[in-house]
Specification:
Length: 403
């Protein structure tokens, strides 16, 4: 990247740190408190998955809710929290986390812009798109790990496209921090590996998980049993989120099976989609849709988790940047999705809020694909960028079919 682009990244990070420092004294404790307390428990050889221990630590910081906020990610995630455990200032740790999160977001959207063939001089559009995407603001406000998950997905696409399959597996291993959100992606990856008889991605992912797990177990040999005790407790059922959460709210809060009901149509959709595209599968072409469906039908998820849907949003942005007729509808959709998601979250809570945003992204992906298909059928030549070649391709009656 040019020096001006690096300067832009530095400016974005500095702005986020400055805003965080200014508003920090006026906001209540949020999700970052779970990372802070878990990190300190880990470095002090306490159980980071103990509800009682976390409650005690969080109450000492002013937490007043009946339940503590727990880190529900598996042990291979915990080594990423260790630096927080050595910070004695909560504000300093929060500023560090904000800077790191913004940096990962900027690097990820720039990488996605390049992956989908966006013009280098228009890379700033990806930042504008991210700034108008509601889950980004939600994620940064509560200091969740969405940027790290997005970095894993973007890194996988970037490395896979260049043929570094083992390293691509190491990148996608980051998604195991919240595996329920990516269950369709992992199923598609398994099918793809079997179809192509290519195991390097799976091997790289396994090595990445094992390295993280090994580092965590060096800190606490009992982490696996501690994590198993947490996920088998009643704590997880206290929360309703995503499409399954909406079903539980409508049909019965105690109906735990409803939380997983949306996964069934998700698996059916993957089976149909894989059968249709297995012969010409390209990850950059098909991952955005599969990821969107996976997020929408995940058993658990919150609006801040939908930061990873920037994969789909940036892909559409690249197409619209080179198609003037699509720019206004795309911008209107992006702003409308932001306002609708915010309004639903404020009025009805996180469960329906996540559903609204994911449905909005899925709907626009379908609309965008239909618009491109109509342009071909009517003979309207439209220049877009092909992610496979990262060069302009004319779509018209005699053009190369759109992936």
């Amino acid at each position: 990247m040019r020096s001006s682009q690096w300067a832009g990244i530095a400016l974005a990070i500095a702005a986020s740190v400055g805003v965080t420092a200014l508003i920090f004294p006026y906001v209540p404790l949020h999700d970052f408190v779970e990372y802070w307390t878990a990190a300190h428990a880990l470095v002090n050889h306490q159980d980071p998955y103990s509800i009682a221990a976390m409650m005690k630590l969080q109450q000492a910081m002013g937490w007043s809710e009946p339940q503590p906020l727990m880190v529900m990610s598996p042990p291979q995630f915990l080594p990423f929290l260790i630096p927080l455990g050595f910070m004695h200032s909560y504000l300093l740790a929060r500023l560090f986390w904000s800077a790191l999160s913004v940096g990962m977001l900027v690097v990820s959207v720039f990488a996605l812009w390049d992956i989908y063939g966006g013009a280098a001089g228009q890379r700033w559009i990806s930042l504008g798109v991210a700034a108008l995407f509601y889950p980004v603001w939600h994620c940064l406000a509560v200091a969740q790990i969405g940027p790290l998950l997005l970095l894993g997905v973007a890194g996988f696409l970037w490395l896979e496209r260049r043929g570094h399959l083992f390293l691509a597996g190491g990148a996608v291993a980051l998604t195991t921090f919240k595996p329920h959100l990516f269950y369709l992606v992992w199923l598609a990856l398994l099918l793809w590996s079997i179809e192509r008889r290519e195991l390097r991605v799976l091997l790289g992912a396994a090595v990445g998980v094992c390295v993280g797990m090994g580092a965590a177990l060096m800190m606490d040999h009992a982490l696996l049993s501690q994590y198993a005790a947490l996920v088998s407790s009643d704590y997880v059922w206290e929360f309703t989120s995503g499409a399954g959460g909406v079903l539980r709210l409508l049909l019965g809060h105690k109906s735990h099976a409803l939380q997983f009901a949306p996964m069934l149509p998700g698996i059916v959709a993957l089976a149909w989609y894989w059968r249709k595209h297995r012969r010409d599968w390209q990850w950059s072409d098909h991952l955005p849709l599969m990821l969107t469906v996976s997020i929408l039908t995940a058993a658990y998820g919150w609006p801040f988790d939908e930061v990873v849907l920037l994969v789909a949003v940036v892909m559409v942005a690249v197409r619209c940047a080179s198609s003037p007729p699509m720019r206004k509808p795309a911008t209107a959709w992006l702003i409308g999705n932001f306002l609708a998601s915010l309004a639903v979250v404020l009025r009805y809570g996180d469960a329906p809020g996540m559903t609204v945003c994911a449905i909005g992204v899925l709907s626009y992906l379908i609309f965008n694909a239909a618009a491109l298909r109509q342009n071909r059928e009517t003979g309207t030549a439209e220049e877009i960028y092909s992610p496979a070649s990262a060069t302009p391709v004319l779509h018209g009656p005699t053009a190369t079919p759109e992936p």
